[in-house]
Each structure stands twice: as C-alpha cells, then as structure tokens.
Amino acid sequence: MKTTAVLLAAGQGARMKSGLPKMLHPICGRPMLSHSLASAMQASDEPSVVVVGHEAGQVRAAISGDVRFVIQDPQLGTGHAVMQAESLLKGKTDYVLVTYGDMPLLQASTLERLVETQKANRGPLTMLTVIAADPRGFGRVLRKSDGAVAAIVEEYAASPEQLKVNELNVGAYCFKADWLWAALHRIKVSPKGEYYLTDTAELAVRDGLAIQAVVCDDLIETIGINTRVHLAEAESAMRARINRTHMLNGVTLMDPAVTYIEAGVKIGRDTVILPNTYIRGATEIGERNQIGPNSHLLDSKIGNDCTVFMSIMEGAVLEDDVDIGPFARLRKGAHLAKHVHMGNFGEVKDSYLAEGVKMGHFSYIGNATIGRHTNIGAGTITCNFDGVNKNPTEIGEDVFIGSDSMLVAPVKIGDRAKTGAGAVVTRDIPADMLAVGVPARAIKKLERKKEE
Ligand code: UD1
Ligand code: CA
Questions:
Q1: Would you say the CB of residue 309 lies under 6 angstroms from ligand 1?
Q2: Which residues pair with 30 in a beta bridge?
Q3: CA-CA to 371 of 20 to 30 Å: which in 27, 41, 297, 395?
Q4: What's the mean pLDDT in 290-306?
C-alpha cells in the first residue's frame, strides 16, 4: 500500500505582509516549507508533490530534493489546491497524506501515526486534531453526540457556540486516494469563494463513512504560521528542539535560550557552546571544542580541541587544537592547520596557515600560504589587491615577519627569512635572508641556528 504526500504551498500568505513568499521565510536557517516537506517525505513512500502558485518560480528554486511540483493558478482554496495533484497521482497511490507548508514543526512521527491510523481505518479519512485553549484562528472540529467527527468549521463561519469548541483542525490528513479524488469535485464553493479541503469531513459523514481523528498531544508541533508573530514562535520552538537534541547528544550549551544553531549543523561530544553564539548553514564541529561567547559560524568546519573565542568564521576550516580570538575574522577559504594560534583583530581570507603558525595581533592575510611554524608579527598585511587583481603571497617555514611588515603581492619569502619592523616588501626575499626598510632590501645572510 503506497502513500504519497501532497504539500500545499500555493497561498499568498497575505497576513505575513511580505515581499517574500510565506513558504520561504526561514526558520532555523531553512525555508519553512523545507521543514514541512522533510517530515512529509519521511512519512510517505513516493516523492512528495508540492502545490505552488503564488511566486511559484521563486518557491521551486528554493526547494531541493526528490519532489514534484504542480501549479495552482488561481488559488481557490485548500481543496482546489489538492485537486491540482489529481492528474499526477490518480491511480498511482493508495493513500494521500495532505499537509500544509506553513506547519514546519509537525514531526514525521506524528504524520506516520496519522498514516498508520488511516491504514487501519475502514473510512476514507483520518485527520490530526489538537486540544488547545488558544484557537489561533484554526478550524473547529465538531463531533456528534457519540463522539464521532461530524465536520470542520472554519473560524470565520463558526457560530458563537462552535467558537467555544477547543478541539482544532491542525491541517494534516490522510485520505483513501480514490475517495479523495471524487470528493474534491463535490466540495461546494464557500462564501469566500474558496473550495475548502476541510469540507471533505462533512462529505464523508454524509456518505455514512467513518472519520478517524488522531489527537496530537504536543501543542508545539501544531504551530501554524500565518503572521510574523507565529513565525517568531515557530523559530524559538524549533530552536529549542534543535538545542535539546544537541544536548542529549553530549554537547554542553551553557544557555540554550541564547544559543542559535541552525537545522543541519553537526556538533561532536563534549564541545561547549557559550552564550550568544550563532552556528549556521553546513557547519560541522568536532569534539571537545569551546565555541563562544558572541561568535558567528557559517558553513565552517572545526576539528577537535579548538577554541573559538568571540570570533567570526564564514566558509573557513580549523584543524585540531587551533585557537582563535577574541575578534578574529576568518573569511571564505581560510584554512588553519593544527596548532595554529590566531589572536585578536586578525582577518584571514583564501589562505592556508600551516601547522603551528602564530599570528597574534592585528594582521590581514589574504591569498597567502604560510609555512609551518612561521611567526606573523603584529600588524602584518598582505597587500594582495592592486586595484585590479588579487595577487598571491607565499611565505615559507620558520619565517619571522617583523611587526608592521607590508608584503606587497605577488611576493615570495623563503624559509627561515626575517623582515625588520615596518618593512615594505616589494621583491622576493630568498631563504635565510634578513630584509629591512622601505622598500625592503635584503641586507645580510642570517646565521642558521644549530639543528637541535
Ligand atoms: C487552514 C484550515 C484550518 C486549519 C488551519 C491550520 C482550510 C480551509 N482551513 O486554515 O481548518 O485549522 O489551516 O493551520 O483548509 N493554500 C494553497 N492554495 C490555496 C489556499 C491555501 O496552496 O488556494 C495553502 C497555503 O499556502 C497554506 C495552506 O494551504 O500552506 C493553508 O492555507 P491557509 O490560508 O494558511 O489556511 P488557514 O486559514 O490557516
Ligand atoms: Ca495557515
């Protein structure tokens, strides 16, 4: 028996008051639709169908994975939206799981429960409900005196008596496919000119068929997003869920309420995350690191035993036992090998710092490679941009760059060379030479230290 999910994502989301389609507003770093989609895919057997309409092109472009899109134009309500999937799915699936793209917190396990219940149901429909004090504009679930579901009534159409009902329609349904396709064509247009999927409940009752209701006991899962107030609620609920998972996996979060970890981030055991830290995108962090406070990590990789203290990393890599900060900024392509030390107010971009490099204070390193155990003095700058091109700087091993050296690229500095403080290096410096002045000139051959 096959189940296919249909996600409704064609609505305009007018209540968001936004130029961005509602489905693409991010929650913990991902468009809300992709959270809903991930759960729906997990609870079904075939690639999901996403119904798009408003800004369809933008929505399609933002969603990846094994999904099929169908267009709903014009958007005439949730029932009409599901109808758009009929020609694609009719005869191809036994059950249809329908959910809304604006319910990003619904868990796959809950949807699985819905599908399982429907598989055991002789009637055509199982729906998800929740008992809640705050109705949040949701449709009310009306039951008959024997407890069976009778209908779903939208808030605006409900009588004062019906408004008091505290069982709400969450917006997730599992249908017998054949019954669904026929029922969709029987839905009558509402006073608002829309065809409501929720009217299928009444149709089933009229057919004398049983509706099952699965009651969701976690209110958080049922947060639907219609306004930016709901968006903020969903963000903080999703954040709490992500943070809890990391903590249960062995990561210490000193204050989870102010720790912002996006969906998909990986963090190893015994890493400690200090407050006000943002860990975003495809970031992967190993074990026993200390990150934060006040740090921002995007699409970066960190090995084991590192310290990132009040610093920023974007598209950067730290190997093991590296320490950076406070106020270090690693930009795209910065790669610090093991045991590198980078102190305050440094910036590194598109550069490789080999094992044991020390760069303590106030430096800019761009488009450079720096050999093992080289020391970069305070205030060193690779002058990598000549106004047109980015030029490379190559610094060898065990080099000593004096404070405030300007390395005018392209330039190479040989192994074990030294520059004097304030040197402006415009020509290559051979290995083992001392260079000083403006522009710097090599003045003497350095004595080699005896090998230990
Ligand atoms: C809907 C339900 C309501 C339920 C609530 C839960 C209906 C009629 N009402 O109300 O009972 O309590 O969700 O969150 O279903 N959409 C389309 N095409 C359309 C209209 C909507 O794809 O023509 C999509 C929207 O993008 C959205 C979803 O369907 O993802 C729900 O639409 P929305 O307008 O948010 O419905 P609610 O008023 O929240
Ligand atoms: Ca909604």
A1: no
A2: 27
A3: 297
A4: 98
